[in-house]
Amino acid sequence: MQCGHQTRNEGFSNWESRPLRGSQALCGADSLSPPKLLPSLNPTYSKSCFGFIPGLECDLALNLVGQHLVRQLVVKGVREFLQNHDPVKPLVMSFHGWTGTGKTYVSSMLVRYLFQDGVRSPYVHQFSPIVHFPHAEQIEQYKENLKSWIQGNLTNCGRSVFLFDEMDKMHPGLIDVIIPFLGPSWVVYGTNYRKAIFIFISNGGGEQINRMVLDLWYARKDREEISLQDLESAVSEAVFENPNNGFWKSGIIEEHLIDLLVPFLPLKQHHVKQCVVNELTQQGLTVHQDIIQAVADSIPYFPEEERVFSSTGCKTVASRVTFFS
Protein backbone atom coordinates (compact mmCIF):
# COMPACT_ATOMS: atom_id res chain seq x y z
CA MET A 1 0.00 0.00 0.00
CA GLN A 2 1.39 3.38 -1.00
CA CYS A 3 0.62 6.82 0.29
CA GLY A 4 -2.36 8.67 -1.07
CA HIS A 5 -1.46 11.72 -3.13
CA GLN A 6 -1.44 15.23 -1.73
CA THR A 7 -0.14 18.72 -2.40
CA ARG A 8 2.75 20.55 -0.86
CA ASN A 9 2.39 23.13 1.83
CA GLU A 10 2.32 26.45 -0.04
CA GLY A 11 1.94 29.04 2.69
CA PHE A 12 -1.06 27.16 4.07
CA SER A 13 -3.19 28.65 1.30
CA ASN A 14 -5.24 25.48 1.48
CA TRP A 15 -5.26 23.37 4.63
CA GLU A 16 -7.14 20.56 2.91
CA SER A 17 -5.31 17.62 1.36
CA ARG A 18 -5.74 17.66 -2.41
CA PRO A 19 -4.78 15.21 -5.20
CA LEU A 20 -1.28 15.52 -6.63
CA ARG A 21 -0.61 14.65 -10.26
CA GLY A 22 2.43 12.57 -11.03
CA SER A 23 3.79 12.45 -7.51
CA GLN A 24 6.22 9.88 -6.24
CA ALA A 25 5.85 8.16 -2.91
CA LEU A 26 8.74 6.54 -1.16
CA CYS A 27 6.55 6.23 1.90
CA GLY A 28 4.62 3.03 2.30
CA ALA A 29 1.89 3.09 4.91
CA ASP A 30 2.93 -0.35 6.11
CA SER A 31 6.61 -0.70 5.32
CA LEU A 32 9.50 1.12 3.71
CA SER A 33 11.06 -0.29 0.56
CA PRO A 34 14.86 -0.11 0.43
CA PRO A 35 15.43 3.21 -1.35
CA LYS A 36 17.85 3.67 -4.22
CA LEU A 37 20.42 6.44 -4.41
CA LEU A 38 18.56 9.47 -5.61
CA PRO A 39 20.06 11.84 -8.20
CA SER A 40 21.60 14.84 -6.50
CA LEU A 41 20.78 18.42 -7.36
CA ASN A 42 24.17 19.42 -5.95
CA PRO A 43 27.06 18.62 -8.30
CA THR A 44 29.48 18.41 -5.37
CA TYR A 45 27.64 15.35 -4.06
CA SER A 46 29.73 12.30 -4.76
CA LYS A 47 28.64 9.97 -7.53
CA SER A 48 30.56 7.22 -5.74
CA CYS A 49 28.08 7.21 -2.84
CA PHE A 50 25.66 4.32 -3.38
CA GLY A 51 22.73 3.06 -1.36
CA PHE A 52 20.56 5.06 1.01
CA ILE A 53 22.37 4.97 4.36
CA PRO A 54 25.86 4.44 2.87
CA GLY A 55 25.11 7.22 0.39
CA LEU A 56 23.87 9.61 3.05
CA GLU A 57 26.85 8.82 5.25
CA CYS A 58 29.24 9.26 2.35
CA ASP A 59 27.76 12.60 1.26
CA LEU A 60 27.80 13.92 4.80
CA ALA A 61 31.45 12.91 5.16
CA LEU A 62 32.40 14.55 1.85
CA ASN A 63 30.31 17.69 1.95
CA LEU A 64 29.33 18.56 5.52
CA VAL A 65 32.20 20.58 6.91
CA GLY A 66 33.38 20.32 10.49
CA GLN A 67 30.42 18.52 12.07
CA HIS A 68 31.57 15.15 13.40
CA LEU A 69 28.71 14.91 15.92
CA VAL A 70 26.08 15.60 13.26
CA ARG A 71 27.39 12.86 10.99
CA GLN A 72 27.43 10.33 13.80
CA LEU A 73 24.03 11.18 15.28
CA VAL A 74 21.99 11.68 12.11
CA VAL A 75 23.24 8.61 10.26
CA LYS A 76 22.83 6.32 13.27
CA GLY A 77 19.42 7.74 14.19
CA VAL A 78 17.97 7.58 10.68
CA ARG A 79 19.41 4.12 10.02
CA GLU A 80 17.90 2.63 13.17
CA PHE A 81 14.56 4.33 12.57
CA LEU A 82 14.15 3.20 8.95
CA GLN A 83 15.28 -0.35 9.69
CA ASN A 84 12.57 -0.67 12.33
CA HIS A 85 9.38 -1.77 10.58
CA ASP A 86 7.31 -1.04 13.67
CA PRO A 87 8.82 2.02 15.39
CA VAL A 88 7.54 2.96 18.83
CA LYS A 89 7.18 6.62 17.85
CA PRO A 90 8.06 9.02 15.04
CA LEU A 91 11.67 10.06 14.67
CA VAL A 92 12.00 13.54 16.19
CA MET A 93 15.27 15.42 15.69
CA SER A 94 16.16 18.93 16.81
CA PHE A 95 19.08 20.71 15.10
CA HIS A 96 20.74 23.46 17.14
CA GLY A 97 23.65 25.75 16.35
CA TRP A 98 24.82 29.11 15.11
CA THR A 99 23.95 30.41 11.66
CA GLY A 100 25.81 28.92 8.71
CA THR A 101 26.85 25.70 10.42
CA GLY A 102 24.84 23.35 8.17
CA LYS A 103 21.45 22.76 9.84
CA THR A 104 19.33 23.46 6.76
CA TYR A 105 21.91 21.81 4.52
CA VAL A 106 21.70 18.53 6.44
CA SER A 107 17.89 18.50 6.56
CA SER A 108 17.76 19.12 2.80
CA MET A 109 20.29 16.36 2.14
CA LEU A 110 18.33 13.91 4.27
CA VAL A 111 14.99 14.50 2.54
CA ARG A 112 16.72 14.33 -0.82
CA TYR A 113 17.69 10.76 -0.01
CA LEU A 114 14.20 9.97 1.26
CA PHE A 115 12.29 11.45 -1.69
CA GLN A 116 13.18 11.88 -5.35
CA ASP A 117 12.15 15.55 -5.30
CA GLY A 118 13.82 16.33 -1.98
CA VAL A 119 12.36 19.37 -0.24
CA ARG A 120 10.02 19.84 -3.22
CA SER A 121 8.36 16.50 -2.59
CA PRO A 122 4.65 16.69 -1.71
CA TYR A 123 5.45 14.55 1.31
CA VAL A 124 7.93 17.04 2.76
CA HIS A 125 6.28 19.90 4.64
CA GLN A 126 8.26 22.98 5.63
CA PHE A 127 7.09 25.54 8.16
CA SER A 128 8.55 28.97 8.80
CA PRO A 129 7.23 31.11 11.67
CA ILE A 130 7.73 34.29 9.66
CA VAL A 131 5.86 32.94 6.64
CA HIS A 132 3.22 30.69 8.20
CA PHE A 133 2.72 32.04 11.73
CA PRO A 134 3.51 35.77 11.56
CA HIS A 135 0.86 37.22 13.90
CA ALA A 136 0.94 36.45 17.64
CA GLU A 137 -2.72 37.38 18.04
CA GLN A 138 -3.72 34.56 15.67
CA ILE A 139 -1.90 31.80 17.54
CA GLU A 140 -5.06 29.84 18.37
CA GLN A 141 -6.04 29.75 14.70
CA TYR A 142 -2.52 28.70 13.78
CA LYS A 143 -2.76 25.83 16.26
CA GLU A 144 -5.96 24.53 14.68
CA ASN A 145 -4.54 24.93 11.18
CA LEU A 146 -1.28 23.19 12.03
CA LYS A 147 -2.98 20.29 13.78
CA SER A 148 -5.39 19.78 10.86
CA TRP A 149 -2.62 20.02 8.29
CA ILE A 150 -0.41 17.45 9.98
CA GLN A 151 -3.25 15.04 10.70
CA GLY A 152 -4.56 15.26 7.12
CA ASN A 153 -1.20 14.73 5.51
CA LEU A 154 -0.16 11.93 7.87
CA THR A 155 -3.41 10.17 7.00
CA ASN A 156 -2.43 10.43 3.33
CA CYS A 157 1.18 9.46 3.91
CA GLY A 158 2.45 8.02 7.16
CA ARG A 159 6.05 8.47 5.96
CA SER A 160 5.76 12.26 5.68
CA VAL A 161 8.57 14.55 6.82
CA PHE A 162 7.86 17.80 8.67
CA LEU A 163 10.51 20.52 8.90
CA PHE A 164 10.06 23.36 11.38
CA ASP A 165 12.58 26.09 10.62
CA GLU A 166 13.66 28.95 12.90
CA MET A 167 12.17 27.51 16.06
CA ASP A 168 13.86 30.35 17.94
CA LYS A 169 11.38 32.70 16.22
CA MET A 170 8.28 30.55 16.76
CA HIS A 171 5.56 31.92 19.04
CA PRO A 172 5.89 30.09 22.40
CA GLY A 173 3.12 27.56 22.96
CA LEU A 174 2.27 27.06 19.29
CA ILE A 175 4.40 23.99 18.62
CA ASP A 176 2.92 22.03 21.54
CA VAL A 177 -0.22 21.43 19.50
CA ILE A 178 1.66 18.69 17.62
CA ILE A 179 2.63 16.77 20.78
CA PRO A 180 0.01 14.03 20.16
CA PHE A 181 1.71 13.23 16.84
CA LEU A 182 5.15 12.84 18.41
CA GLY A 183 4.38 10.16 20.99
CA PRO A 184 3.82 6.40 20.76
CA SER A 185 0.02 6.28 20.60
CA TRP A 186 -0.94 7.53 17.15
CA VAL A 187 -2.17 4.67 14.98
CA VAL A 188 -5.45 5.96 13.63
CA TYR A 189 -7.65 5.13 10.62
CA GLY A 190 -5.25 2.38 9.55
CA THR A 191 -2.34 4.81 9.28
CA ASN A 192 0.77 4.37 11.39
CA TYR A 193 1.75 7.92 12.33
CA ARG A 194 4.81 6.56 14.08
CA LYS A 195 6.69 6.27 10.79
CA ALA A 196 6.87 10.02 10.21
CA ILE A 197 9.95 12.19 10.72
CA PHE A 198 9.88 15.58 12.45
CA ILE A 199 12.87 17.94 12.29
CA PHE A 200 13.15 21.16 14.28
CA ILE A 201 15.81 23.68 13.22
CA SER A 202 16.92 26.42 15.57
CA ASN A 203 19.69 28.90 16.34
CA GLY A 204 18.58 28.50 19.95
CA GLY A 205 21.30 26.98 22.09
CA GLY A 206 23.91 28.21 19.64
CA GLU A 207 25.45 30.55 22.21
CA GLN A 208 25.84 27.71 24.69
CA ILE A 209 27.45 25.52 22.02
CA ASN A 210 29.83 28.30 20.98
CA ARG A 211 30.78 29.00 24.59
CA MET A 212 31.57 25.33 25.23
CA VAL A 213 33.73 25.08 22.12
CA LEU A 214 35.51 28.35 22.92
CA ASP A 215 36.22 27.22 26.49
CA LEU A 216 37.78 24.04 25.11
CA TRP A 217 39.93 26.09 22.75
CA TYR A 218 41.17 28.22 25.64
CA ALA A 219 41.97 24.98 27.47
CA ARG A 220 44.05 23.84 24.45
CA LYS A 221 41.58 21.07 23.64
CA ASP A 222 40.27 20.16 20.22
CA ARG A 223 36.63 20.76 19.27
CA GLU A 224 36.44 17.13 18.07
CA GLU A 225 36.73 16.08 21.71
CA ILE A 226 33.24 17.41 22.41
CA SER A 227 30.52 14.80 22.90
CA LEU A 228 26.75 15.05 22.83
CA GLN A 229 26.69 14.58 26.60
CA ASP A 230 28.76 17.75 26.99
CA LEU A 231 26.11 19.85 25.24
CA GLU A 232 22.68 18.22 25.41
CA SER A 233 21.56 19.41 28.85
CA ALA A 234 22.83 22.96 28.37
CA VAL A 235 21.13 23.36 24.99
CA SER A 236 17.82 21.86 26.16
CA GLU A 237 17.78 24.09 29.22
CA ALA A 238 18.66 27.18 27.18
CA VAL A 239 15.74 26.83 24.77
CA PHE A 240 13.30 25.58 27.44
CA GLU A 241 13.96 28.59 29.70
CA ASN A 242 14.01 31.25 26.96
CA PRO A 243 10.59 32.99 26.78
CA ASN A 244 11.41 34.21 23.26
CA ASN A 245 11.97 30.69 21.93
CA GLY A 246 9.39 28.37 20.40
CA PHE A 247 10.43 25.63 22.84
CA TRP A 248 9.83 27.83 25.90
CA LYS A 249 8.34 25.60 28.63
CA SER A 250 7.41 23.20 25.84
CA GLY A 251 5.94 19.81 26.61
CA ILE A 252 7.99 18.45 23.71
CA ILE A 253 11.11 18.92 25.83
CA GLU A 254 9.42 18.31 29.17
CA GLU A 255 8.02 14.97 27.99
CA HIS A 256 11.33 13.97 26.33
CA LEU A 257 9.78 13.58 22.88
CA ILE A 258 12.93 14.65 21.05
CA ASP A 259 14.89 11.53 20.12
CA LEU A 260 18.01 13.27 18.86
CA LEU A 261 19.24 16.69 19.88
CA VAL A 262 21.89 17.42 17.26
CA PRO A 263 24.42 20.19 18.05
CA PHE A 264 26.16 22.00 15.19
CA LEU A 265 29.55 23.34 16.26
CA PRO A 266 31.05 26.70 15.23
CA LEU A 267 33.45 26.48 12.29
CA LYS A 268 37.13 27.41 12.31
CA GLN A 269 38.93 29.15 9.46
CA HIS A 270 40.15 25.91 7.87
CA HIS A 271 36.52 24.74 7.76
CA VAL A 272 35.55 27.97 6.00
CA LYS A 273 38.31 27.38 3.46
CA GLN A 274 36.91 23.92 2.80
CA CYS A 275 33.49 25.50 2.19
CA VAL A 276 35.12 27.87 -0.30
CA VAL A 277 36.70 24.95 -2.17
CA ASN A 278 33.32 23.17 -2.29
CA GLU A 279 31.61 26.32 -3.57
CA LEU A 280 34.23 26.94 -6.27
CA THR A 281 33.88 23.33 -7.39
CA GLN A 282 30.09 23.56 -7.42
CA GLN A 283 30.20 26.71 -9.55
CA GLY A 284 32.64 25.07 -11.96
CA LEU A 285 35.39 27.56 -11.12
CA THR A 286 39.10 26.92 -10.81
CA VAL A 287 40.24 26.45 -7.24
CA HIS A 288 42.77 29.22 -6.58
CA GLN A 289 44.48 29.58 -3.22
CA ASP A 290 44.32 33.37 -3.40
CA ILE A 291 40.52 33.27 -3.76
CA ILE A 292 40.23 30.77 -0.91
CA GLN A 293 42.33 32.97 1.36
CA ALA A 294 40.56 36.19 0.32
CA VAL A 295 37.12 34.77 1.07
CA ALA A 296 38.24 33.27 4.38
CA ASP A 297 39.90 36.54 5.45
CA SER A 298 36.79 38.58 4.63
CA ILE A 299 34.55 36.68 7.06
CA PRO A 300 34.11 37.91 10.66
CA TYR A 301 35.45 35.66 13.43
CA PHE A 302 35.24 35.43 17.19
CA PRO A 303 36.85 36.12 19.59
CA GLU A 304 37.59 39.37 17.77
CA GLU A 305 41.30 39.42 18.53
CA GLU A 306 42.11 35.75 18.04
CA ARG A 307 39.72 35.26 15.05
CA VAL A 308 39.26 31.54 15.69
CA PHE A 309 35.62 30.70 14.89
CA SER A 310 33.49 32.07 12.05
CA SER A 311 30.67 34.32 13.28
CA THR A 312 28.52 33.36 10.29
CA GLY A 313 29.75 29.83 9.63
CA CYS A 314 29.78 29.24 5.88
CA LYS A 315 26.52 31.09 5.29
CA THR A 316 27.98 33.92 3.20
CA VAL A 317 30.64 31.89 1.40
CA ALA A 318 28.69 31.56 -1.87
CA SER A 319 28.16 35.30 -2.29
CA ARG A 320 31.77 36.05 -1.31
CA VAL A 321 33.09 33.52 -3.82
CA THR A 322 31.14 35.33 -6.53
CA PHE A 323 32.58 38.66 -5.39
CA PHE A 324 36.21 37.54 -5.25
CA SER A 325 36.19 35.36 -8.39
From TrEMBL:
SMART domains: AAA. One of its GO terms (cellular component) is endoplasmic reticulum lumen. It is found in: Endoplasmic reticulum lumen. Its main location: endoplasmic reticulum. Keywords: ATP-binding, Endoplasmic reticulum, Glycoprotein, Nucleotide-binding, Signal. The keyword Nucleotide-binding applies. The keyword Cell inner membrane does not apply. One of its GO terms (molecular function) is identical protein binding. Signal peptide: none annotated. InterPro entries: AAA+_ATPase, ClpA/B, P-loop_NTPase, TOR1A_C, Torsin, Torsin_1/2. Residues 89-231 form the AAA+ ATPase domain. Belongs to the ClpA/ClpB family. Torsin subfamily. This is Torsin. The gene is TOR2A.
